[in-house]
Structure formats: structure tokens, C-alpha cells
Design a protein that fits this description.
2 domains, mainly alpha, 64% helix, 8 helices, 137 residues
Length: 137
């Protein structure tokens, strides 16, 4: 049975990173990362999102193993809703940041277990700002 820790370790090694590289980029200590990989600690959602982002995978994959841990550059093209495109233009977001925002939103909706009305451009900007605050950027 694979665990969150084993999936983090496998994704890190696949990406060619040492523990200290991932720890630095994710903003955690090497000791804490080691405890995660050895299944002695569970990261918060905020930390897990940072780790997934550095590894170019999803939180869903790290938590469940149900989605492929593909690097962002190898993922399928992300559909950018018109309202998100407008918001991204207003905020000066890159395509990568816009695609990541669309994907994060899709994961949130999926976790809630339902469909939601697509956000307006103003709502996309609020979602973007909330994620930035949550990630400490």
C-alpha cells in the first residue's frame, strides 16, 4: 500500500530533487520533510499544496495516488474560462499562473463534491488573492 509519504518521496526522486531542494522550495525544514516521507507527520493543506506545486503534481495525487504525477509541462491543455482570462489579464498573470489557478479551482470544486456556477472575473480575482494569502506569497 502506498502512502502520502511514499508518493512525495517518489515524486521528489522522479523530479531529481534531493530532500533539501524540495524542503527549501516548499518552505519547510528537511527534518519535517523527512518525517512526511517516512509517514511520521502529516502536512497541513497549505504545506501539501506547496509541495505538490514544487513537484509539479496535484494534492489529490499525493493524498490518494489516484491521479498521475505528471509535471505541469506534460499536462493536458487547461481550458481557461473567459471570465478567468479577463481576470488574468487584469491581474497581469502568466499563462502558467492562470492555468494553475483554474486547476486549483477545479480541485476545490471536486473536493466539495459538486458543480458550482463558474466564477465571474471579479470572483476569480478574489480567489487568486485568497490563494496568494493562503500560500503566504
Amino acid at each position: 500500500m502506498t502512502t502520502l509519504g511514499s508518493r512525495v518521496k517518489k515524486a521528489r526522486e522522479t523530479k531529481g530533487l534531493k530532500q533539501h531542494d524540495l524542503a527549501d522550495r516548499a518552505g519547510v525544514s528537511v527534518g519535517f520533510l523527512s518525517e512526511i516521507e517516512n509517514n511520521h507527520r502529516n502536512p497541513s493543506g497549505k504545506v501539501l499544496l506547496k509541495i505538490a506545486s514544487v513537484l509539479g503534481t496535484t494534492m489529490d495525487y499525493l493524498q490518494t495516488g489516484h491521479s498521475a504525477p505528471t509535471p505541469a509541462r506534460e499536462r493536458n491543455v487547461v481550458s481557461i474560462p473567459p471570465a478567468l482570462a479577463d481576470a488574468a489579464e487584469q491581474a497581469g498573470l502568466s499563462y502558467a499562473a492562470t492555468a494553475a489557478l483554474a486547476e486549483a479551482y477545479q480541485q476545490i470544486v471536486a473536493r466539495r463534491g459538486g458543480k458550482e456556477e463558474p466564477p465571474t472575473a471579479e470572483e476569480w480575482l478574489r480567489i487568486y488573492q485568497a490563494l496568494r494569502r493562503h500560500l503566504g506569497e
